[in-house]
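Document type: protein sequence-to-structure record

Subject area: structural biology

Format: plain text, a pair of labelled lines:
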Amino acid sequence: MQNNLHSLFLSSSNFETGGGGGGSGGSGKSTKGASKMRRDLINSEIANLRDLLPLPSSTRQRLSQLQLMALVLVYVRKSNYFDQSK
């Protein structure tokens, strides 16, 4: 997962950032491709986080991305809190 995040940050600086996305000129197409690539990578990482939650699979699959991120934050905060109390 860390390699994917690293590649996201490295590759995002290499994308063309022309026009407002699809306007006149040829830069809209590469920006669309770059945006899709970023969205696909984000969705992949969200799916990885979904699989890491200690919940039944049926419950995990019903969560929206927002609910999933909220639960991940609660889980991480709880873990950090109990690790500090040791």
